[in-house]
Amino acid sequence: MNKITKDWTLGDVINENEELQDVLMGFGMHCFSCPLSQMETLEEAAQVHGIDIDFLLEKLNEQNTK
What we know:
The chain has about 70 residues and is mainly α. It has one domain. It is built from four helices and no strands. The chain is globular, with a radius of gyration of 10 Å.
């Protein structure tokens, strides 16, 4: 599996591993079906949702290695 970084879009994350939707939803990010999910980076989405990007990346990468 690839290491997820703040430059990835939400669409990239889902394409990498569909099970990561659960992690995103746990952070209140339900917008992966939105057209913006193909353009907005994780960093941008985290800012909009008031989420610590480093913590989000840690959780996504932990789940992505399982």
